[in-house]
């Protein structure tokens, strides 16, 4: 596929960007001066209260005498503790993602009959429109599966007879179809990438209606279509834990923002996918793997506590890793002592470890979790509690399942589609207002300068030519 070549030269871009950097500077002190909550965050890092929801609650502390008091994290879906949901499925030895999708969307656990019907509907909806794979996925391979998934979701708009109908009934239909179709889109997009970018064989397996979401994903990704029940249930756990995390997370908020404008389902979900792609959000598990790969390459023994501690120290001091100063997989905006998703994934990973290689990698993650809080406090002097988050162990589980890194974040997308669906429907039925936060303008007005009088001096430094009215308010 031919690459698009930009007619804009690098020198021209550098020159233009210098103007952007000059004129888009904002004094950090102005955020405090005008009471602006950057990133819609309060001073303690918690999110600004922007809405009400019945779908999910995320809890990692309580307030006592105006102070935040840390406690073990809790995650509830529609009032049900995530640990109870996972334990219930484990005791009955069955898959739970479809049940959780029903719970999130409809607000209560399904009966056995409802769950069976829902599973059958999802199975029927898994098939993509005729020629969609060839026309929308195979003809334009993407180096990033997330972009291909977003593009494919947008393309499904053209195959829908009523794409702009935002009645609850129609949006529910669209959301159920997308929950069913995203795993197929993900798998096909990866196969096309394998062929085009890696020069490897591509294999397309048709979905089997009797298989659930986790089983279907493993079947379509593997050349021999074989997987064990234990493997499928481990992936199912990952799907459950990634399916929802409150209305304030970036991708869900993006979906709700677009929903509030009255736009179509495909546009709203594509926005969520675009958000989740970011390394500060859904792409964080890839950054964990990148960080641990650095450690494996640079340390003689990744299970040695002293070596790992020294390396974490270098990471925080921006002397190692990607030089960001971030220990990926550690810390969360809400969870303080523990992230319940990380606890469940760690326990599952420990039980599933089957080789010396993975045992050593698991021990490395354990050491990162154990050592980082004290090292961070000693270097930064910050006493805020830090715990492992969901991204620390999820990548290891995907590796143990033979799932390529290309699909770490897309799998997150497949899971989170259930949560996005629930929030889109809730926003439609309860929101009633377009979401529109305010931005304080801190630019200073100045007089218009005729084109033939403009110089580099008065254009690049307009602050020297501000109006008297502006001076009066300074």
Describe this structure in words.
The protein has 474 residues and is mostly helical. It folds into 3 domains: 10-36 and 440-473, no CATH class; 96-280 and 411-431, Citrate Synthase, domain 1 (Orthogonal Bundle), CATH 1.10.580.10; 284-399, Cytochrome P450-Terp, domain 2 (Cytochrome p450-Terp, domain 2), CATH 1.10.230. Helices cover 54% and strands 5% of the residues. It is built from 20 helices and 3 strands. The chain has helices spanning 10-23, 29-33, 82-91, 97-106, 112-125, 132-138, 145-156, 168-197, 213-221, 229-242, 250-260, 265-276, 284-298, 305-316, 340-352, 356-380, 391-400, 408-431, 456-460, 468-473, and strands at 56-64, 67-77, 80-81. Strands 1-2-3 form a 3-stranded antiparallel sheet. Strand 1 and strand 2 form a beta hairpin. Helix 7 packs antiparallel against helix 12 (265-276). It is globular and about 75 Å long.
């Amino acid at each position: 596929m031919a690459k698009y070549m930009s007619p804009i030269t690098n020198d021209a871009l550098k020159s233009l960007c210098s103007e952007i950097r000059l004129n888009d500077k904002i004094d950090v002190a102005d955020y405090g001066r005008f009471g602006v909550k950057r990133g819609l965050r309060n001073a303690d890092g918690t999110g600004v209260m922007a809405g009400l929801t019945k779908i999910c609650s995320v809890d990692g502390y309580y307030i006592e005498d105006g102070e935040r008091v840390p406690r073990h994290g809790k995650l509830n879906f529609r009032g049900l503790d995530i640990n109870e949901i996972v334990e219930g499925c484990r005791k009955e030895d069955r898959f739970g993602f479809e049940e959780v999708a029903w719970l999130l969307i409809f607000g209560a656990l399904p009966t056995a009959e409802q769950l069976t019907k829902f599973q059958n509907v999802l199975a029927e909806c898994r098939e993509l429109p005729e020629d969609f794979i060839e026309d929308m996925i195979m003809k334009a391979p993407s180096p990033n599966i997330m972009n291909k998934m977003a593009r494919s979701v947008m393309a499904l708009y053209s195959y829908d007879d009523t794409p702009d109908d935002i009645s609850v009934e129609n949006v529910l239909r669209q959301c159920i179809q997308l929950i069913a179709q995203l795993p197929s889109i993900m798998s096909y997009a990866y196969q096309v990438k394998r062929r085009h970018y890696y020069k490897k064989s591509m294999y397309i397996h048709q979905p089997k209606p009797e298989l659930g979401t986790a089983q279907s994903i493993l079947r379509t990704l593997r050349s021999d279509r074989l997987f064990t029940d234990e493997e499928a249930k481990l992936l199912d756990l990952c799907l459950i834990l990634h399916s929802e995390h409150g209305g304030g997370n970036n991708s869900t908020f993006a979906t709700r923002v677009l929903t509030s404008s009255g736009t179509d389902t495909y546009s709203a979900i594509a926005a969520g996918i675009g958000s989740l792609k970011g390394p500060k959000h859904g792409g964080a598990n890839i950054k964990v793997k990148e960080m641990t790969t650095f450690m494996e390459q640079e340390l003689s023994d990744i299970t040695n506590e002293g070596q790992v501690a020294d390396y974490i120290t270098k990471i925080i001091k921006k002397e190692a890793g990607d030089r960001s100063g971030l220990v990926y997989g550690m810390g969360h905006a809400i969870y303080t002592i523990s992230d319940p998703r990380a606890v469940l994934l760690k326990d599952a990973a420990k039980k599933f470890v089957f080789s010396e290689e993975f045992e050593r990698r698991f021990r490395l993650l354990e050491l990162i979790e154990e050592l980082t809080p004290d090292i961070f406090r000693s270097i930064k002097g910050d006493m805020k509690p830090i715990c492992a988050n969901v991204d620390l162990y999820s990548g290891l589980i995907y590796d143990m399942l033979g799932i390529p890194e290309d699909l770490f974040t897309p799998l997150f997308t497949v899971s989170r589609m259930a949560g996005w669906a629930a929030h889109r429907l809730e926003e439609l039925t309860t929101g009633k207002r377009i979401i529109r936060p305010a931005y304080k303008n801190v630019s200073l007005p100045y007089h218009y300068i005729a084109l033939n009088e403009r110089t580099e001096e008065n254009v690049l430094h307009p602050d020297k030519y501000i109006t008297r009215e502006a001076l009066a308010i300074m």
